[in-house]
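Prompt: For my understanding, could you write out one protein's sequence and backbone structure tokens?
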Amino acid sequence: MSEGRAGEIASETSLFAMRPAARDHPGGAPADPVEENDRGGISARPPGAIRRRLPLGLRLPELGTAIGEALVTEWERGTAFLFIPVFLAAGAIAYYSVETEPSLSSLAGGVAILCAASLLARTRPLLQLAVVALLLILLGMLFGSVETRRAGTRVLGSEISTVLTGRVAAIEHQANGRVRLTLDVLDTARPKLRYAPERVRVSARGVPADLVAGSVVTGVARLFPPSGPLRPGSYDFSFESFLDGIGANGFFLKDPEVTTSVSAPVPLEARFHAMVENARTALAQRIRSRIGGPEGEIAAALIAGTRAGIPEEVNEALRRTGLAHVLSISGLHMALVAVTIMTALRLGFALFPGFASRRPVKKYAAVVALAATAVYLFISGSAVAAERSFIMLAVMLLAVMVDRAALTMRNLAIAAIAVIALSPHEVVGPSFQMSFAATAALIGAYGWWAERRASRPATAPPADASIVMRLARGVTRNLAGLVMVSMIAGLATSVYGVYHFQRVSPLSIVANLAAMPIVSVIVMPCAVVAMAAMPFGLDGIFLDTMGRGLAVMVSVADWFSDRSPLDAVGTVPVAAVVSITAALVIATLASTWLRALSLPFVVAGLALVATRSSPDVLVSEDARLVGMPLQDGRLAVNRSRPNGFTVEDWQRATGTGALAKPSRTGSGAAAPEGAKAGRTQEGASGPVGVSPARLLRHGDLPVTVGFLCGGGLCLGRQAPDVFVAHAETAEAALAACGFAALIVIDDATAENPCPHDSSLVITKRHLARQGTAQISLSGERPIVRFTLAEPYRPWHAHRQFSREARGLPPFRPKARKSAVTMPD
């Protein structure tokens, strides 16, 4: 088989038992309809040799026969192996989704029992397949349990201020001028923490100029335990922090200082990581000093993996246009590095035809590309997404070294198995889901297209076609390929982007078509060459060219971002994600007409999305913020200066736009000039100078929707006859008992002030123990859904130790005694 056709028909043999005539095709596409001819090419087999299309019009017995034939064909082509990572991933997701922590011994025992059962069921293939599927699911759960116990992160239970001394593990200079430090905790004092976390992430306004990774710093820091999800189903900061080894977050009350008073031995691993981190910092600084501006920060992110310095407006423009994936060192960057190096080496070898004709130069180039991507992995900081991408690329490059097709569905499955075994928690994150979904969809689509092209007679351009016509045809073909790649990858990943981020990029396809050729042809090749030329001081011109390419990319992102419509689309039900994922798995892994079985799952997923409903009220886990989606498309909140990150997430989840901030009244609210008590101010939610409690007593209720706050009570109208109250104390909440459908009390010591009324009461203690609340008020009684449940999973176990979870008031330090003075 010629090398030029290796991307169409792979020559590797299936890992399962296959007939000698069966071949592996990229994307699992069938190789049976084609066969090699005597010149090393391919030719179509007679029509009807293999049933590839949906058998329409067949009666039930014939349809059953067709299904059986298709399943046999799938088995012979090794499709069963491709489902191994699917079941492993399902097991990992099941482990992280259950409410109670499974026993490690029970999981291990279950795996052993199912292994024995699969051996006993060898004579019954269908039963054996079912047992193996259960075995893989249980094995995925076991991988997750082992990773959780391996992490074993000590997490701070409650916020506290302490003198923190730690060794610097990482330094991140942020766009707002602050510096974020990752510290390995060496000591705490005043007070000394009895259960101090081993690693924390804190920010500071400034740090010493000579601070490097490995230095020891000390200072007074305010530490907080990682927070939970902002709403049910959203990103869980505690989960990620636990598995990343971060036990607390916070900030220094004043700039930390370098100290030499602590002389703890430095482990070899810590010294190695400090050396790599200092090299990354120096590399990023060199790039910034040469390029400068936002382009310099993006270049530092692409090469050194330091993203903290990118301005937020640039980040937002990239997110709105679907170009944010450029900033994350992932499969795209690893592949571009490998392709650049392999292309350069093979062109270099081509200058020596005698050597190139006698030696496997393609394998030599693959070895060098693998080594270069490994170096790139270390330089970029070895983030989990980069590690996953490296594993995928390493599998493909190793396939090239052993004369196998590089980009096949089987190689993708092997990479997925490796990632799930090493970092199973990545399965529930957007990075894993979107990257593997896009890659699987592209491989599957290419396999389907290559199969159809191989079964048709080849069409060559007319012999008398001019050079211009040939060039135009080539350009048109490449542009069509880029459009199809963008569409396929975008469709495959859209459901995961909507689920995790509640936003879409309406112009992402056009923006990627405009920007990605610049990134692929100019930016990344210049980055690779600049890295190679940097030791000789010849990197300047390549970094300059890279900066100009990034400037064009940012301009494209800004242009499309300004013209993008609202991208917030609300939440997507988990059932819809599962249904569409099942459709994607069937459509990409199947190689026969069984792909058509994905259509019912697509229809079911879209129907579930269409029937989704938004929550009526959201309450933050600190009980300070309440949000209500209004019928006019705004989000009403009870605070004039709410937490921006939380509000933004709620707006995307509920599909709302602008904020409806509360109107202030009652004691302490100054009435504007000309306004009198009891008279409604224009644009306000109620009478100026009159507290909500008094309005309730006199029946003079607000007319407009939103919150009216005063006297320790906020009263909000969610619908004409539905009210929500937020009170600072139980006493302030008494006025809303029996009137408001929901009462939130920002006091952990408060008891239910309305035990005999129909109002649903949620206190600060409830939220501290069970996390953010999502409430539906459409029924006869409110339905509340918390983000957490007890008993806690390991990454939430620290919540039970906070003062709020124990029903205690906030800690207030004792006032210092004044000096004793003698009377006159």
